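Hi R.,

Quick one: here's the Protein phosphatase methylesterase 1 sequence you asked about.
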Amino acid sequence: MSFRDHSLRSLIQQNLKKTLPLQPEEKVPYEPSLSNWGNYFQERIEIPTGHGDIIGYLTLPQPDSCLFVLQHGAGSSAMSFAPMIPELLSNSDNSGGFLSLDLRAHGETSVQPETDMSLQTLTNDFVHAVQYVQNMFHLEEKLILVGHSLGGSICTEAVFQKRLPNVSGLVIIDAIEGSAIESFNYMRRYISTRPSSFSSIEEAISWHLKTLTIRQHSSACITVPSLLIPSEDSSCYKWRTDLASTSPFWSDWFTGLSDKFLTSACGKLLIVAAADRLDKSLIIGQMQGKYQLEVSPASGHFVHEDAPVQMASLLIKFWHRNQPLVLPLKV
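And here's the predicted structure, written out as tokens:
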């Protein structure tokens, strides 16, 4: 079924506005078709690197529109942004383009070595993937880079290093240097205490909702399946990404993020779940008007999954605000 099927898009949009209260051991109803990438994007792209393929999901922009490049965070996948795609399409009059990428060691990407998760390596992967798609489809539209958590650091690094031309906007979602560094010990405890496997996809979705890791039922049905792979004996589902093995890179991912974000030469938007997460540099920068700040207090860390309707509206308004000014020709 096509991502432009209006009945499916309408159903997804209605479900995204609902919340589903859960009882302690209740399993949620799960519709497998909701997690099909084809409901949200036009194409699945295999991007060769010489060491395996980066997987991306693409909807081409219309002329004079823009391409939103979407990069997920650690432990997530490119499908993390799928819940807001129907709203982004609707709010852009079906003109916007979207490229969502699986990081190495995540989703369906198979780039080796998966043990190299340094920020520079991940940024190189990201830049290579974007440039490959631009060349393949002869895209000259402006880019809006949107990154969640680690993805925010990657997008910021690419802009800070001036690796990609045509970037008109940088959006980072709940990626804050100070609070990220302070949460490292909590993250280690979280990873060590979460289930190592699930008996079914439904059980995994229920766990994400009951723990408030994701707060929207429909979003969890769309995004959680891509986080899991069958065990070798097919008796259960286990995590696709070994988050614990990435811990040596955590400091590298976030150290210096605030200053790089503030000095990036493009429009900037920071979206957070709580304003009290801002560190000193970001507080001063916000007071000086160096970036736009938006707060989504009803959301958790996965703001774009918890509030996809609000997120889509913010992104489209940000795009319009940062379009280049075209002056009329003098006669």
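The chain has one domain: 6-15+38-189+251-321.

Cheers,
M.
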